[in-house]
Amino acid sequence: MKNLKRVSFLIVLMTFVISCASMKKDNTVTGKVDSIEFGKDGYTAKLTTDKKEVYFAVISIVNVGGPQNYKTLKTGDEVSLKGEIWKTDTEKHMTVREIVSVK
């Protein structure tokens, strides 16, 4: 009986973890780089979209999947980025998972 309860608990826990992991959706944001602020493991690019929305895109080697996918953007670049968007009270942030294009 104890083993049945433990197995049931593990199945419920695994189902919960899998459902939460699948909720993460990568969004694509396209805009112009207004400024760059370098940090310890990468940098944050401030983007403005055509709709005048401002995003702070956090770009690091680890988050984009390694040095082969990492690019340093410049102010004025037109970029398309894919990643997870999260919001604070007044700002929109993005953890970049892929740099789709740079012009």
Mean pLDDT: 87
- Succession of helices and strands: HEEEEE
Top-tier CATH class: Mainly Beta
| Number of helical elements | 1
| Count of β-strands | 5
CATH fold category name: OB fold (Dihydrolipoamide Acetyltransferase, E2P)
- Broad structural category: alpha+beta
The biggest sheet, with number of strands, parallel, antiparallel or mixed sense and barrel status, is:
5 strands, mixed, barrel
Rg to the nearest angstrom?
18 Å
Q: Runs with pLDDT <50, length 5+? A: none
State the CATH architecture.
Answer: Beta Barrel
Order of neighbouring strands in the sheet with most strands: 1-2-3-5-4
Strand content: over 45%
Shape: elongated
Distance from N terminus to C terminus (CA atoms, Å) equals 63 Å
Number of domains: 1
CATH fourth-tier homologous superfamily: Nucleic acid-binding proteins
What portion of residues is helical? Answer: 10-25%
